[in-house]
From TrEMBL:
Coiled coil: none annotated. This is Transposase. It comes from Splendidivirga corallicola. InterPro entries: Homeodomain-like_sf, Transposase_8, WH-like_DNA-bd_sf.
Length: 86
């Protein structure tokens, strides 16, 4: 007799040792940067942790590197000041 817990454990363990090629990871990071998918989308589609996807981003992204902060403000005060001066 198979118990639900045993099935869940066997299903999880089947995904622990999967490997994705470097080109696959680079392609997925590129898709995230192009706003085609979110980290959560890729995580669900390929059944990998969000942490793994973020590691791919830190390693293969041209823009997002660990330790570097990118601040994006659509309605920033700087933009308002520049607009007001012109």
């Amino acid at each position: 007799m198979v118990f639900k817990e045993d099935y869940a454990r066997s299903k999880r363990s089947a995904h622990q040792n999967r490997y994705f090629s470097e080109s696959f990871k680079k392609q997925k990071v590129s898709e995230i940067e192009s706003n085609l998918f979110t980290v959560s989308d890729l995580s669900r589609m390929y059944e990998v942790s969000r942490t793994s996807v973020y590691k791919w981003i830190y390693r293969y992204s041209l823009h997002r590197k660990r330790g570097i902060k990118q601040v994006i403000e659509l309605n920033s005060d700087s933009k308002k000041i520049i607009t007001a001066k012109t």
